[in-house]
Amino acid sequence: MNDSISSTFAALADPTRRAILARLALGETSVTELAEPFAISMPAVSKHLRVLERAGLIVRSREAQWRPCKLKAEPLRQAAGWLDEYRRFWEESFDRLDEYLQRVQAEQKQTKGRKKPKKETRYGRSNSK
Q1: Nearest-angstrom CA–CA distance, 73 and 78
Q2: Which run of H or E residues covers position 29?
Q3: Which domains does the chain have, with CATH numbers?
Q4: Is a pLDDT exceeding 50 seen at residue 1?
């Protein structure tokens, strides 16, 4: 995994940072507005924002007293592309499992109408009376 994808996944590991990104997906907003829904201090919010900024997931700027944050989606696209390879793997695995289960079910339907032979014990006698 290259460094940018590692940084992206590390940043996404925290639920607060994921919530911040979800809010920024709605549009640019200030740090103060981003902090409102969280029961954490402004320094803690700033720390989360620094992690997101280092990962390249957000851009912070300064316009007079307003400090807007904006989502940068490119690192998320790269991470999604990396994960997409594994999605294909799982889909193919599930397809093979589905084919196997269909075969087993078809075999069970074929043998369902047949009478099953009596099961023998270790001494050659059947368990039936």
Answers
A1: 9
A2: strand 29-30
A3: 3-75 (1.10.10.10)
A4: no
